[in-house]
Amino acid sequence: MKKVKNKTPLLSTKYRIDWVLLTVVSTLCIFGLAFLASSLSVKSEAIYNREFFKQLVLGLGLGGFLAAILARVPYQFLFKRVNILIWINFLMLGFLAIFALYVNIAGFNGSFAEKQAIRNDIVRSVDFLPIKPHVANGAIRWIDFPFLPNFQPSEFSKLALLIYLAKFLTKKEVDSTEWSIIKKPIFAFIASGILIFLQPDLGTVILIAGILGSSMWAAKVPLKFIATSSAVVRVLALSASLLTGFRNNRVEDWLNLNVGTADAENLNSNQVRMVQLAIQNGGLWGQGYGNSEF
User: DSSP E strands: which ranges in the chain?
Assistant: First the structure.
């Protein structure tokens, strides 16, 4: 007689709802939607409706539906297929890295405007592809799929790397604190971090490092190892901030910015200037709900 393999079902009929987590996430989503509506109050009705309902339908509606489905997927099912998720992660990040590397090489020592022109030229040159990179705010961080435009692979990386790490940390036969267990997800993070950094997107690299670090802490990996890894990430992030032109300019602008001066309009750090103007005009608590100015 042939042995029947015990297959893990896609959706489990037995699952427990974490009401604390659900309440926290739902509260953050509701407040986020309310703050978005307030900030859009100065826009036209067409822009307001488009952006608000896009977040309401795609963000809360579709996101909530997918979350409800994933909550019923057994972790064993994900662990068995996590290698596929990791390779999909590398394929998408590698696809964007090819174009990002070309921009960095072709626009070496070039200005921000010159690199932006190169990025736009690349997108136009591959317009015949069904899947093509998307450029926004001087970065190549998105992929335009025929059915899903403006998809950001680094968001997928957060989930894929976390599941990959969890698979190794939950192994029963070996002590989960051994380097031999966690080295594969660490190397996967390093490879993904380099590809994301090229887009460029240092913030997401730091965020993913924080997610993995907190996961290792929850799995009781020795604090000495976590602290060492954290120190390395901090040093690399600080070096990238100070040695990269536009990041270094932001730090300098933050230190030297004077709101209201004629030079303020020409500075690189528009976000810093807008934050200072917001505090100057609205104080700590702002000017009230729906009274945005910018």
Answer: 132-136, 139-144
Within the chain, residue ranges assigned H as helices are 19-39, 45-54, 63-70, 75-80, 82-106, 112-125, 153-169, 179-197, 202-218, 223-243, 245-256, 270-282
Which position has the token pair 């996101």?
A: 63
Task: Respond yes or no on whether the N-terminal peptide bond of residue 153 is cis (omega within 30° of 0).
Answer: no
Structure tokens at 169: 């940390």
How far is 50 from 151, CA to CA, in rounded Å? Answer: 18
Are 99 and 122 a contacting pair, CB within 8 Å?
yes
Return the DSSP state at 151: B
Write down the pTM of the prediction: 0.75
R_g of the chain computed on alpha carbons? 22
For 138, the token pair is 């001087």
Q: What is the pLDDT of residues 195-241, one digit of tens each?
A: 998 888 888 888 888 888 888 888 777 777 788 878 888 887 777 76
**Per-residue three-class SS string for 12-27:** CCCCCCCHHHHHHHHH
